Structure formats: structure tokens, C-alpha cells
Amino acid sequence: MSETRTTPVRFPRGRYGRRREGRRGMSRPLVVIAAVVAVLGGLAISVKLYQQYGDTDYAGQIISYETHDASVDITFSVTKPDGESALCQVRARSRDGAEVGRAEVSVPSDGETVTMTYTLSTSGDRPVTGEVQRCYPAKR
């Protein structure tokens, strides 16, 4: 059998120490303002990073690669604005995925799409792949 109370429990005054009131948190308008500031800050950072790293007019695409004992010949094409020069980062990796060579290749401003072959010297293990990591404007 259970007992249901209709009146709150009252403790004798002064017997159990001072009763603490619940802590008052931040007011609702302050929480809303803090949330809006956080969202706007995140949005501003997102826009800045997108402008810096996102959706560029410069794109490199690997066409082929041929590996040798101490080098890799990488043939790739670069799409860029006509008349602009570009820089592309190329690299070679070994069988275990370790980077064994990296270079920054200057791409001339001839035309909108430029195809070129670059011989990348490697160190350490024999390379098994050549890649174009990224391309970007030569003038930064």
C-alpha cells in the first residue's frame, strides 16, 4: 500500500542548516544572443575557409605515371583560367603508402588546359604510384 501526501514536507526551522535556493542560470535572452553570436561566428569562419580552399578554378588530373627505381614520370593535365599560370604539388608514394618524393611543378600560362610530364626523383623505397595532390594560382 502506498501513501500519497497532499502537503509538502516541512522540516523544522534551523535544524538542518540553511536551505539553498536553486541556482539561477543565464536568462533566456542572453542564451539566445550567445547562440546567435556562435552561429554567425561559425558562418563567418566557414565562408572564409571556403573562399581560401574551396571550389577553385584550378584542377589537376593524373593521366598516367611510370615508375622507375629512383623516380616516377607523372603525366597530368591542369585546367585553369586561360592566361594564368599555376603551381601543382605532385608526389610519389611507396608500396606501404609512405611519401618518397614531392615537388611543386610550375605550369605555364598556355591555354586553359595544359598537359605536361614531370619526372619526380624519389628517395628511400621504390615508388609505386605518382599523384597530383592539388593545383593553385602561381600568384598568391
From TrEMBL:
It holds the Pfam family DUF4307. Residues 1-22 are annotated as: Disordered. It comes from the Bacteria. Residues 12-22 have a biased composition (Basic residues). This is Membrane protein. It comes from Actinorhabdospora filicis. The lineage of its organism: Bacteria, Bacillati, Actinomycetota, Actinomycetes, Micromonosporales.
